[in-house]
Amino acid sequence: MIRVLIADDEPMIRAGVRAVLASDPDMEIIAEASDGHEAVELVRRHRPAVAVLDIRMPGLNGIDAAAEIRSSAPSTGVVMLTTFGEDDYILRALGGGATGFLIKSGEPEELITGVRAVADGAAYLSPKVAARVVAHLAATGAGALADRRSAARARVDSLTAREREVLAFLGSGLSNGQIARRLHVVEGTVKAHVSSILARLGVDNRAAAAVVAHEAGIVPAPSQT
């Protein structure tokens, strides 16, 4: 059973997220919060597998709450809910402890997929979020999009062929276990590859590595079936 906490200052959003996640028989909503401070306290008390946080909340926002959760309850994964136009918040959250990023207006199935991925230790970037992050980075003085993609490809080219394969799966939101099954290797081998990938790319977490994978264009398009 995946134990989940939901935090959003809008009751209707909380109700919608709760209804979607409750439709999955493997998920249990164990607590709800209306602000970041309450979310952190409830995570410390209940230790859920995943905390679903609104990126912008009164008092303590989702970014700062994610950082506190990462520090005080590292076993709890954080999924950040965002809306279009919050690109700066997303970039800050990438370094703040969140490993899942979803658009509030996305499909209900994607919310379940993202929570499951983070509960399983993976990073999950909604394709729409990934596209906006890459475009935003290109438009904020960090260099033209073509330059960023070229730089990302150069970073990826420094990886071994197997590490590039693992990174592509990581960017698709797969967990270590899922990647291991795809590659027919043991999970410990994938974990070692991921650690090497983070070091070689110079990033701190799987979500940031996933952004590099998207920038480099090595993430396969989602299946339409």
TrEMBL record:
Pfam families: GerE, Response_reg. It comes from Streptomyces umbrinus. Residues 3-119 form the Response regulatory domain. InterPro entries: CheY-like_superfamily, NreC/VraR/RcsB-like_REC, Sig_transdc_resp-reg_C-effctor, Sig_transdc_resp-reg_receiver, Tscrpt_reg_LuxR_C, WalR-like. It comes from the Bacteria. This is DNA-binding NarL/FixJ family response regulator. The modification 4-aspartylphosphate is found at residue 54. Residues 152-217 form the HTH luxR-type domain. The keyword Phosphoprotein applies. One of its GO terms (molecular function) is DNA binding. Keywords: DNA-binding, Phosphoprotein, Transcription, Transcription regulation. The lineage of its organism: Bacteria, Bacillati, Actinomycetota, Actinomycetes, Kitasatosporales.
